[in-house]
Each structure stands twice: as C-alpha cells, then as structure tokens.
Design a protein that fits this description.
Number of helices: 2
Order of helices and strands: EHEEHE
Radius of gyration: 13 Å
Keywords: 3Fe-4S, Electron transport, Iron, Iron-sulfur, Metal-binding, Transport
Function: Ferredoxins are iron-sulfur proteins that transfer electrons in a wide variety of metabolic reactions.
Cofactor: [3Fe-4S] cluster
Mean pLDDT: 83
Largest sheet: 2 strands, antiparallel
Protein name: Ferredoxin
Helix content: 10-25%
Number of strands: 4
Length: 83
C-alpha cells in the first residue's frame, strides 16, 4: 500500500495523527499533515485506510494493498464487470 497526502487540501484537523501517529504527523508551522511513512507496513493498514475514509477534506489517499489492486490503483471497491 502507498499513502499519499495533498497538503493543499488538508484542513489541519489532526485526525490522521490520532489514527496512525506512526504514519502521519502535523507541521508545527501550519498544522497540516506530514507524511512520515508513504509505504507503511501491514500492521498500520487498517488505521491508515480508516483515516483516509474519515479525512474531512479527502487529503489522504491510499493506493494498492496486495488484494487485487495494482500499486497505482485506488483501493476503493470496483463494480463487477460483465453485469
């Protein structure tokens, strides 16, 4: 899994740091998200995915995770094809 952040979209709520402090931090200058580990281990996967879903501005995205999604593809469920 790869984590990406868009600091321009970040509102500085700090939720990400409370969910996954080993992956996220906040800038002392502007309070916006800082990405400590763009490739976190599987132990942080659940917290990182939860945070990406709960980020109030959508500034955090998760790509790939080894369960059928390629490394550059978003992890959102796909619609079945051929229906």
């Amino acid at each position: 899994m790869e984590v990406r952040v868009d600091r321009d979209r970040c509102a500085g709520s700090g939720l990400c740091v409370s969910y996954a402090p080993e992956v996220f931090d906040q800038s002392e200058d502007d309070g916006k998200v800082l990405l400590k580990k763009p490739l976190p281990g599987t132990g942080a996967a659940g917290a990182v995915r939860a945070m990406a879903a709960r980020c109030p501005t959508g500034a955090i995205t998760v790509h790939g995770h080894g369960h059928g999604h390629g490394p550059g593809e978003p992890s959102a469920p796909r619609e079945p094809s051929g229906l």
